[in-house]
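PROTOCOL LOG
Step 1. Enter all chains and additional molecules of the complex.
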Amino acid sequence: MLSRKAAPVKRFILNTQNADAWRRLVLSGKVTPVLDGCAGITLAGALELFATALAHRDSCGLFSEIHQASARGHSLWRALLTEWCAQAPGETATDIHRGRQLEFFRLRTMKDKNSLNLSYFEQRFSSSMKQEGFPPIFSNALGKVIDEMADNVIQHSGTTDDGFTGIAGYHVQNNCAAFAVTDVVAGLLATLRTSPRWSGLTTSRAAIRAIAIHHASSRQDQGDGEGFKQLFKSLIDHNSLIRIRTDDAALTVGNSLNEREGGEVASPLLRGVQISIACGLRDCRAQESEITI
Amino acid sequence: MNMRIIELRPSRPHLHGATLAQEDLSTALSSFSALNGDSAVFLLNLSNATSVTGSYLRATLHWALLCGQAAVSQPAHPPSHGQWSVKPLPLFPMVVAPSAVVAEEVHDFFGARNLPLLQALKWTKSEITSVRLVGVLDSFLLGTLLKLARFGEATAGELADKSKEEITPNAWSNRLAALFMLRLVTRNRVGKFWKYAPIAKEIQSWG
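Step 2. Run joint prediction.
Step 3. Record the structure below.
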Protein backbone atom coordinates (compact mmCIF):
# COMPACT_ATOMS: atom_id res chain seq x y z
CA MET A 1 0.00 0.00 0.00
CA LEU A 2 1.34 3.37 -0.93
CA SER A 3 1.70 5.84 1.90
CA ARG A 4 0.90 9.44 1.16
CA LYS A 5 4.03 11.54 1.26
CA ALA A 6 3.59 14.84 3.06
CA ALA A 7 4.58 17.92 1.13
CA PRO A 8 7.62 19.72 2.51
CA VAL A 9 6.52 22.35 4.92
CA LYS A 10 7.54 25.91 4.27
CA ARG A 11 7.86 27.73 7.57
CA PHE A 12 6.41 31.17 7.85
CA ILE A 13 4.90 33.53 10.41
CA LEU A 14 1.27 33.12 11.34
CA ASN A 15 0.14 36.76 11.32
CA THR A 16 -2.60 38.72 9.59
CA GLN A 17 -0.38 39.38 6.59
CA ASN A 18 -0.08 35.65 6.01
CA ALA A 19 -3.45 34.64 7.42
CA ASP A 20 -5.07 34.30 4.02
CA ALA A 21 -2.23 32.10 2.77
CA TRP A 22 -2.52 29.97 5.90
CA ARG A 23 -6.22 29.49 5.36
CA ARG A 24 -5.67 28.52 1.72
CA LEU A 25 -3.16 25.97 2.95
CA VAL A 26 -5.58 24.55 5.49
CA LEU A 27 -8.48 24.43 3.04
CA SER A 28 -6.36 22.79 0.36
CA GLY A 29 -5.73 19.86 2.71
CA LYS A 30 -2.40 19.32 0.97
CA VAL A 31 -0.16 20.16 3.88
CA THR A 32 -0.49 18.39 7.19
CA PRO A 33 0.28 18.92 9.93
CA VAL A 34 -0.24 22.60 9.26
CA LEU A 35 1.19 23.95 12.49
CA ASP A 36 4.60 22.43 11.71
CA GLY A 37 5.07 25.24 9.22
CA CYS A 38 4.67 27.88 11.85
CA ALA A 39 7.83 29.87 12.50
CA GLY A 40 6.11 32.35 14.81
CA ILE A 41 2.61 33.39 15.80
CA THR A 42 0.89 36.69 16.47
CA LEU A 43 -2.37 37.07 18.36
CA ALA A 44 -4.42 37.99 15.32
CA GLY A 45 -2.89 35.20 13.25
CA ALA A 46 -3.61 32.66 15.99
CA LEU A 47 -7.24 33.73 16.30
CA GLU A 48 -7.71 33.72 12.55
CA LEU A 49 -6.35 30.19 12.31
CA PHE A 50 -8.43 29.13 15.30
CA ALA A 51 -11.55 30.54 13.62
CA THR A 52 -10.66 28.55 10.50
CA ALA A 53 -10.32 25.42 12.63
CA LEU A 54 -13.71 26.07 14.24
CA ALA A 55 -15.46 26.75 10.95
CA HIS A 56 -14.01 23.62 9.34
CA ARG A 57 -13.99 21.44 12.41
CA ASP A 58 -15.64 18.53 10.63
CA SER A 59 -13.67 18.65 7.44
CA CYS A 60 -10.05 19.24 8.42
CA GLY A 61 -7.72 18.09 11.13
CA LEU A 62 -6.62 21.53 12.26
CA PHE A 63 -8.71 21.53 15.42
CA SER A 64 -7.10 18.26 16.56
CA GLU A 65 -3.71 19.67 15.70
CA ILE A 66 -4.40 22.63 17.96
CA HIS A 67 -5.52 20.23 20.70
CA GLN A 68 -2.29 18.27 20.30
CA ALA A 69 -0.17 21.42 20.42
CA SER A 70 -2.01 22.45 23.57
CA ALA A 71 -1.44 19.00 25.12
CA ARG A 72 2.27 19.29 24.31
CA GLY A 73 2.29 22.45 26.42
CA HIS A 74 2.29 25.14 23.73
CA SER A 75 1.33 28.11 25.92
CA LEU A 76 -0.63 30.06 23.30
CA TRP A 77 -2.79 27.18 22.11
CA ARG A 78 -3.25 25.96 25.66
CA ALA A 79 -4.45 29.39 26.83
CA LEU A 80 -6.79 29.66 23.87
CA LEU A 81 -8.27 26.18 24.20
CA THR A 82 -8.63 26.41 27.96
CA GLU A 83 -10.72 29.54 27.60
CA TRP A 84 -12.65 28.11 24.66
CA CYS A 85 -13.60 25.01 26.63
CA ALA A 86 -14.29 26.79 29.93
CA GLN A 87 -17.92 26.75 31.00
CA ALA A 88 -17.71 30.22 32.51
CA PRO A 89 -15.59 32.77 30.64
CA GLY A 90 -12.70 34.29 32.48
CA GLU A 91 -12.84 31.56 35.13
CA THR A 92 -9.19 30.78 34.51
CA ALA A 93 -8.18 34.21 35.78
CA THR A 94 -6.80 34.02 39.30
CA ASP A 95 -5.59 37.50 40.20
CA ILE A 96 -8.41 39.46 38.62
CA HIS A 97 -6.70 42.85 38.56
CA ARG A 98 -3.17 41.99 37.51
CA GLY A 99 -2.42 42.65 33.87
CA ARG A 100 -1.18 39.81 31.72
CA GLN A 101 0.81 39.52 28.53
CA LEU A 102 -1.65 37.21 26.85
CA GLU A 103 -5.25 36.37 27.65
CA PHE A 104 -8.46 35.20 25.99
CA PHE A 105 -12.14 35.59 26.79
CA ARG A 106 -14.89 33.52 25.24
CA LEU A 107 -18.29 35.04 24.48
CA ARG A 108 -20.86 32.30 24.52
CA THR A 109 -23.94 34.05 25.94
CA MET A 110 -25.35 37.53 26.33
CA LYS A 111 -24.60 37.22 30.04
CA ASP A 112 -20.91 36.81 29.23
CA LYS A 113 -20.90 40.19 27.53
CA ASN A 114 -22.45 41.92 30.54
CA SER A 115 -20.43 39.97 33.09
CA LEU A 116 -18.00 41.52 35.51
CA ASN A 117 -15.48 38.98 34.22
CA LEU A 118 -15.44 40.76 30.86
CA SER A 119 -15.00 44.14 32.60
CA TYR A 120 -12.05 42.74 34.53
CA PHE A 121 -10.62 41.27 31.32
CA GLU A 122 -10.83 44.71 29.66
CA GLN A 123 -9.31 46.38 32.71
CA ARG A 124 -6.45 43.88 32.72
CA PHE A 125 -5.81 44.64 29.07
CA SER A 126 -5.70 48.38 29.80
CA SER A 127 -3.45 47.77 32.83
CA SER A 128 -1.06 45.67 30.78
CA MET A 129 -0.84 48.42 28.19
CA LYS A 130 -0.11 51.03 30.84
CA GLN A 131 2.57 48.79 32.36
CA GLU A 132 4.12 48.48 28.92
CA GLY A 133 4.27 52.27 28.71
CA PHE A 134 1.23 53.15 26.63
CA PRO A 135 -0.52 56.40 27.65
CA PRO A 136 -3.37 55.82 30.16
CA ILE A 137 -6.01 57.59 28.04
CA PHE A 138 -5.15 55.50 25.00
CA SER A 139 -5.00 52.31 27.07
CA ASN A 140 -8.44 52.97 28.55
CA ALA A 141 -9.84 53.83 25.12
CA LEU A 142 -8.67 50.48 23.78
CA GLY A 143 -10.40 48.76 26.68
CA LYS A 144 -13.60 50.40 25.44
CA VAL A 145 -12.95 49.36 21.85
CA ILE A 146 -12.50 45.71 22.76
CA ASP A 147 -15.83 45.94 24.60
CA GLU A 148 -17.52 47.44 21.54
CA MET A 149 -16.20 44.65 19.35
CA ALA A 150 -17.37 42.03 21.86
CA ASP A 151 -20.74 43.78 21.87
CA ASN A 152 -20.94 43.39 18.10
CA VAL A 153 -20.57 39.62 18.48
CA ILE A 154 -23.62 39.48 20.74
CA GLN A 155 -25.67 42.03 18.86
CA HIS A 156 -25.00 40.91 15.32
CA SER A 157 -23.11 37.66 14.82
CA GLY A 158 -25.88 35.16 15.48
CA THR A 159 -25.59 31.89 17.36
CA THR A 160 -24.97 28.20 16.85
CA ASP A 161 -26.35 25.35 18.99
CA ASP A 162 -23.51 26.09 21.38
CA GLY A 163 -24.35 29.78 21.69
CA PHE A 164 -22.25 32.60 20.29
CA THR A 165 -18.88 31.73 18.79
CA GLY A 166 -17.06 34.85 19.87
CA ILE A 167 -13.62 34.90 21.38
CA ALA A 168 -11.55 37.94 22.27
CA GLY A 169 -7.89 38.04 23.07
CA TYR A 170 -5.13 40.50 23.84
CA HIS A 171 -1.35 40.37 23.79
CA VAL A 172 0.97 43.01 25.23
CA GLN A 173 4.71 42.51 24.87
CA ASN A 174 7.84 44.07 23.36
CA ASN A 175 6.48 47.65 23.12
CA CYS A 176 3.45 46.39 21.22
CA ALA A 177 -0.15 45.77 22.14
CA ALA A 178 -2.69 43.83 20.15
CA PHE A 179 -6.20 42.65 20.52
CA ALA A 180 -8.57 40.69 18.29
CA VAL A 181 -12.19 39.61 18.46
CA THR A 182 -13.50 36.89 16.19
CA ASP A 183 -16.63 34.86 15.52
CA VAL A 184 -17.64 32.40 12.81
CA VAL A 185 -21.37 32.80 12.22
CA ALA A 186 -22.82 35.79 10.36
CA GLY A 187 -20.53 38.12 8.43
CA LEU A 188 -20.98 41.85 7.99
CA LEU A 189 -22.81 41.44 4.68
CA ALA A 190 -25.50 39.15 6.08
CA THR A 191 -25.96 41.41 9.08
CA LEU A 192 -26.20 44.66 7.16
CA ARG A 193 -28.56 43.22 4.59
CA THR A 194 -31.22 42.77 7.26
CA SER A 195 -31.65 46.55 7.13
CA PRO A 196 -33.68 47.89 4.19
CA ARG A 197 -31.13 50.69 3.82
CA TRP A 198 -28.30 48.24 3.17
CA SER A 199 -30.21 45.37 1.60
CA GLY A 200 -28.74 46.25 -1.81
CA LEU A 201 -25.20 45.38 -0.77
CA THR A 202 -23.91 42.39 -2.68
CA THR A 203 -20.34 41.78 -1.57
CA SER A 204 -18.45 41.51 1.68
CA ARG A 205 -16.05 44.13 0.41
CA ALA A 206 -18.93 46.58 -0.02
CA ALA A 207 -20.16 45.71 3.47
CA ILE A 208 -16.77 46.52 4.99
CA ARG A 209 -16.70 49.82 3.14
CA ALA A 210 -20.22 50.67 4.29
CA ILE A 211 -19.17 50.12 7.86
CA ALA A 212 -15.78 51.78 7.70
CA ILE A 213 -16.81 54.80 5.65
CA HIS A 214 -20.54 55.28 6.26
CA HIS A 215 -20.80 53.81 9.78
CA ALA A 216 -23.50 51.51 8.44
CA SER A 217 -25.73 49.79 10.96
CA SER A 218 -28.19 46.95 10.66
CA ARG A 219 -30.62 48.75 12.96
CA GLN A 220 -33.31 50.27 10.82
CA ASP A 221 -33.84 54.03 11.19
CA GLN A 222 -31.50 54.35 14.13
CA GLY A 223 -28.69 56.23 12.45
CA ASP A 224 -24.99 55.49 12.47
CA GLY A 225 -23.49 52.43 14.09
CA GLU A 226 -21.29 53.33 17.04
CA GLY A 227 -18.99 50.33 17.49
CA PHE A 228 -16.71 50.87 14.51
CA LYS A 229 -16.91 54.62 14.97
CA GLN A 230 -15.41 54.11 18.42
CA LEU A 231 -12.75 51.88 16.91
CA PHE A 232 -11.65 54.39 14.31
CA LYS A 233 -11.97 57.33 16.70
CA SER A 234 -9.67 55.63 19.18
CA LEU A 235 -7.13 54.28 16.75
CA ILE A 236 -6.94 55.92 13.41
CA ASP A 237 -4.59 58.73 14.29
CA HIS A 238 -2.47 56.62 16.59
CA ASN A 239 0.31 54.30 15.75
CA SER A 240 -1.84 51.32 14.90
CA LEU A 241 -2.85 48.71 12.35
CA ILE A 242 -6.44 47.65 11.89
CA ARG A 243 -7.63 44.60 9.99
CA ILE A 244 -11.31 43.90 9.47
CA ARG A 245 -11.96 40.51 7.89
CA THR A 246 -15.36 39.17 7.02
CA ASP A 247 -16.42 36.24 4.82
CA ASP A 248 -14.24 36.61 1.73
CA ALA A 249 -12.87 40.13 2.12
CA ALA A 250 -10.53 42.03 4.37
CA LEU A 251 -9.64 45.66 4.88
CA THR A 252 -6.40 46.79 6.44
CA VAL A 253 -5.80 50.33 7.60
CA GLY A 254 -2.58 51.43 9.16
CA ASN A 255 -1.39 54.66 10.66
CA SER A 256 2.20 54.07 11.45
CA LEU A 257 4.44 56.94 12.46
CA ASN A 258 4.02 59.41 9.60
CA GLU A 259 2.20 57.40 7.02
CA ARG A 260 -1.29 56.05 6.66
CA GLU A 261 -1.77 52.95 4.58
CA GLY A 262 -4.78 50.94 3.66
CA GLY A 263 -5.98 48.29 1.31
CA GLU A 264 -8.72 45.83 0.54
CA VAL A 265 -7.93 42.24 -0.27
CA ALA A 266 -9.83 39.12 -1.21
CA SER A 267 -9.64 36.51 1.50
CA PRO A 268 -10.42 32.78 1.34
CA LEU A 269 -13.96 32.31 2.62
CA LEU A 270 -14.38 32.19 6.37
CA ARG A 271 -17.82 33.06 7.71
CA GLY A 272 -18.06 35.64 10.45
CA VAL A 273 -15.97 38.63 11.37
CA GLN A 274 -12.56 39.23 12.87
CA ILE A 275 -11.32 42.59 14.02
CA SER A 276 -7.60 42.72 14.74
CA ILE A 277 -5.71 45.69 16.10
CA ALA A 278 -1.98 46.09 16.67
CA CYS A 279 -0.42 49.17 18.23
CA GLY A 280 3.15 50.26 18.65
CA LEU A 281 4.59 52.25 21.51
CA ARG A 282 5.70 55.80 20.74
CA ASP A 283 8.43 55.66 18.10
CA CYS A 284 8.05 51.97 17.27
CA ARG A 285 6.38 51.22 13.99
CA ALA A 286 3.01 49.59 14.59
CA GLN A 287 3.34 45.92 13.89
CA GLU A 288 2.03 42.64 15.11
CA SER A 289 4.28 41.26 17.76
CA GLU A 290 5.10 37.57 17.85
CA ILE A 291 3.97 35.83 20.98
CA THR A 292 7.03 34.56 22.81
CA ILE A 293 5.54 33.54 26.10
CA MET B 1 -44.58 71.25 34.73
CA ASN B 2 -45.71 67.99 36.26
CA MET B 3 -45.15 64.89 34.21
CA ARG B 4 -44.59 61.27 35.03
CA ILE B 5 -40.88 60.52 35.40
CA ILE B 6 -39.53 57.05 34.68
CA GLU B 7 -36.04 56.99 36.12
CA LEU B 8 -33.42 54.41 35.27
CA ARG B 9 -30.22 54.51 37.30
CA PRO B 10 -27.67 51.90 36.17
CA SER B 11 -25.40 50.85 38.99
CA ARG B 12 -22.23 50.08 37.04
CA PRO B 13 -19.40 52.55 36.59
CA HIS B 14 -18.64 51.52 33.01
CA LEU B 15 -21.63 51.58 30.69
CA HIS B 16 -20.34 50.05 27.50
CA GLY B 17 -22.22 48.46 24.62
CA ALA B 18 -25.76 47.95 23.42
CA THR B 19 -26.09 44.57 25.11
CA LEU B 20 -25.64 46.09 28.57
CA ALA B 21 -27.89 49.01 27.58
CA GLN B 22 -30.68 46.64 26.62
CA GLU B 23 -30.30 44.68 29.84
CA ASP B 24 -30.55 47.90 31.85
CA LEU B 25 -33.41 49.28 29.78
CA SER B 26 -35.41 46.06 29.97
CA THR B 27 -36.32 46.94 33.57
CA ALA B 28 -38.12 50.05 32.31
CA LEU B 29 -39.96 48.43 29.39
CA SER B 30 -43.03 47.50 31.42
CA SER B 31 -43.34 51.12 32.60
CA PHE B 32 -43.14 52.28 28.99
CA SER B 33 -45.82 49.83 27.91
CA ALA B 34 -48.10 50.97 30.73
CA LEU B 35 -48.09 54.59 29.60
CA ASN B 36 -51.16 54.18 27.39
CA GLY B 37 -50.48 57.34 25.49
CA ASP B 38 -49.62 59.51 28.51
CA SER B 39 -46.37 61.37 28.16
CA ALA B 40 -43.45 60.63 30.46
CA VAL B 41 -39.91 61.80 30.96
CA PHE B 42 -37.44 58.96 30.60
CA LEU B 43 -34.66 60.00 32.93
CA LEU B 44 -31.44 58.06 32.45
CA ASN B 45 -29.52 58.77 35.60
CA LEU B 46 -25.82 58.24 34.98
CA SER B 47 -24.74 59.34 38.46
CA ASN B 48 -22.90 56.06 39.05
CA ALA B 49 -21.18 56.08 35.67
CA THR B 50 -17.58 57.05 35.12
CA SER B 51 -17.58 56.09 31.43
CA VAL B 52 -20.19 55.47 28.76
CA THR B 53 -19.92 54.51 25.09
CA GLY B 54 -21.84 55.64 22.04
CA SER B 55 -23.40 52.20 21.69
CA TYR B 56 -24.85 52.43 25.18
CA LEU B 57 -26.26 55.91 24.54
CA ARG B 58 -27.62 54.86 21.18
CA ALA B 59 -29.49 51.92 22.66
CA THR B 60 -30.97 53.96 25.53
CA LEU B 61 -31.39 57.72 25.13
CA HIS B 62 -31.27 57.81 21.35
CA TRP B 63 -33.66 54.87 21.09
CA ALA B 64 -36.06 56.63 23.50
CA LEU B 65 -35.81 59.84 21.48
CA LEU B 66 -36.64 57.99 18.25
CA CYS B 67 -39.56 56.25 19.96
CA GLY B 68 -40.78 59.64 21.20
CA GLN B 69 -40.55 61.04 17.69
CA ALA B 70 -42.35 58.02 16.30
CA ALA B 71 -45.20 58.72 18.72
CA VAL B 72 -45.62 62.10 17.00
CA SER B 73 -44.99 61.18 13.39
CA GLN B 74 -46.50 57.72 13.17
CA PRO B 75 -48.68 57.02 16.21
CA ALA B 76 -50.41 54.18 14.36
CA HIS B 77 -47.09 52.48 13.70
CA PRO B 78 -47.47 48.84 12.61
CA PRO B 79 -46.33 46.35 15.25
CA SER B 80 -42.56 46.19 15.15
CA HIS B 81 -40.64 42.96 14.92
CA GLY B 82 -37.71 43.32 17.24
CA GLN B 83 -37.95 44.23 20.89
CA TRP B 84 -35.48 47.04 20.30
CA SER B 85 -36.85 48.42 17.07
CA VAL B 86 -38.26 51.93 17.14
CA LYS B 87 -41.91 52.03 18.23
CA PRO B 88 -44.23 54.92 19.14
CA LEU B 89 -43.80 55.69 22.83
CA PRO B 90 -44.65 59.14 24.25
CA LEU B 91 -41.24 59.57 25.85
CA PHE B 92 -39.18 62.67 26.55
CA PRO B 93 -35.64 61.41 27.12
CA MET B 94 -33.41 63.24 29.54
CA VAL B 95 -30.06 62.47 31.11
CA VAL B 96 -28.47 63.04 34.51
CA ALA B 97 -24.71 63.18 34.14
CA PRO B 98 -22.80 64.73 37.03
CA SER B 99 -19.48 63.44 35.72
CA ALA B 100 -17.94 65.92 33.28
CA VAL B 101 -16.49 63.06 31.22
CA VAL B 102 -19.85 61.35 30.90
CA ALA B 103 -21.64 64.64 30.14
CA GLU B 104 -19.08 65.32 27.42
CA GLU B 105 -19.71 61.86 25.91
CA VAL B 106 -23.44 62.53 25.82
CA HIS B 107 -22.89 65.99 24.34
CA ASP B 108 -20.57 64.58 21.66
CA PHE B 109 -22.88 61.69 20.81
CA PHE B 110 -25.92 63.91 20.25
CA GLY B 111 -23.88 66.68 18.68
CA ALA B 112 -22.51 64.25 16.08
CA ARG B 113 -26.09 63.37 15.18
CA ASN B 114 -27.11 67.03 15.05
CA LEU B 115 -29.59 66.45 17.86
CA PRO B 116 -30.24 68.13 21.22
CA LEU B 117 -30.97 66.47 24.54
CA LEU B 118 -31.90 67.82 27.94
CA GLN B 119 -29.62 67.17 30.88
CA ALA B 120 -31.55 67.36 34.14
CA LEU B 121 -29.85 69.47 36.79
CA LYS B 122 -32.62 69.70 39.41
CA TRP B 123 -35.72 67.60 39.73
CA THR B 124 -38.27 66.20 42.12
CA LYS B 125 -40.30 62.99 41.89
CA SER B 126 -42.85 64.66 39.65
CA GLU B 127 -41.13 67.65 38.13
CA ILE B 128 -37.95 68.61 36.31
CA THR B 129 -37.08 72.11 37.45
CA SER B 130 -33.74 72.87 35.84
CA VAL B 131 -32.08 71.54 32.71
CA ARG B 132 -29.09 72.13 30.49
CA LEU B 133 -29.18 71.64 26.76
CA VAL B 134 -26.54 69.27 25.37
CA GLY B 135 -25.80 68.28 21.78
CA VAL B 136 -26.77 70.66 18.99
CA LEU B 137 -29.82 72.88 18.55
CA ASP B 138 -30.40 75.33 15.72
CA SER B 139 -30.04 78.92 17.00
CA PHE B 140 -33.60 79.91 15.97
CA LEU B 141 -35.02 76.92 17.81
CA LEU B 142 -32.84 77.67 20.83
CA GLY B 143 -34.16 81.25 20.87
CA THR B 144 -37.73 79.94 20.69
CA LEU B 145 -37.10 77.45 23.50
CA LEU B 146 -35.64 80.13 25.78
CA LYS B 147 -38.52 82.46 24.97
CA LEU B 148 -41.05 79.76 25.80
CA ALA B 149 -39.23 79.07 29.06
CA ARG B 150 -39.56 82.75 29.93
CA PHE B 151 -43.30 82.85 29.18
CA GLY B 152 -44.03 79.48 30.83
CA GLU B 153 -46.44 78.24 28.18
CA ALA B 154 -47.84 79.67 24.98
CA THR B 155 -49.52 78.99 21.67
CA ALA B 156 -47.81 80.07 18.47
CA GLY B 157 -50.16 83.05 18.27
CA GLU B 158 -49.35 84.14 21.82
CA LEU B 159 -45.63 83.92 21.10
CA ALA B 160 -46.13 86.04 18.00
CA ASP B 161 -48.02 88.62 20.07
CA LYS B 162 -45.47 88.73 22.87
CA SER B 163 -42.37 88.66 20.72
CA LYS B 164 -40.78 91.70 19.14
CA GLU B 165 -39.52 89.61 16.25
CA GLU B 166 -41.36 90.00 12.97
CA ILE B 167 -42.29 86.39 12.55
CA THR B 168 -45.68 85.10 11.53
CA PRO B 169 -47.67 82.85 13.91
CA ASN B 170 -47.23 80.15 11.28
CA ALA B 171 -43.43 80.36 11.56
CA TRP B 172 -43.67 80.24 15.38
CA SER B 173 -45.92 77.24 15.00
CA ASN B 174 -43.32 75.48 12.85
CA ARG B 175 -40.58 76.19 15.37
CA LEU B 176 -42.65 74.98 18.29
CA ALA B 177 -43.61 71.83 16.41
CA ALA B 178 -39.91 71.21 15.69
CA LEU B 179 -39.09 71.60 19.39
CA PHE B 180 -41.86 69.17 20.24
CA MET B 181 -40.53 66.69 17.71
CA LEU B 182 -37.10 67.01 19.33
CA ARG B 183 -38.80 66.22 22.67
CA LEU B 184 -37.72 69.51 24.25
CA VAL B 185 -41.21 70.86 24.95
CA THR B 186 -44.63 69.37 25.64
CA ARG B 187 -47.97 70.42 24.20
CA ASN B 188 -51.68 70.21 24.91
CA ARG B 189 -54.63 70.90 22.66
CA VAL B 190 -56.52 74.01 23.81
CA GLY B 191 -59.48 74.56 21.53
CA LYS B 192 -58.11 74.52 18.03
CA PHE B 193 -54.58 75.48 19.04
CA TRP B 194 -51.62 73.67 20.55
CA LYS B 195 -50.37 75.15 23.78
CA TYR B 196 -46.66 74.44 24.24
CA ALA B 197 -44.71 74.37 27.50
CA PRO B 198 -41.07 73.81 28.35
CA ILE B 199 -40.32 70.64 30.28
CA ALA B 200 -38.33 72.65 32.84
CA LYS B 201 -38.67 76.28 33.89
CA GLU B 202 -34.94 76.91 33.94
CA ILE B 203 -32.92 76.12 30.82
CA GLN B 204 -29.18 76.57 30.40
CA SER B 205 -27.28 76.02 27.21
CA TRP B 206 -24.09 73.92 26.92
CA GLY B 207 -20.79 75.52 27.73
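Step 4. Note key features.
Chain A is about 40% helix and 25% strand.
Chain A has a mean pLDDT of 84.
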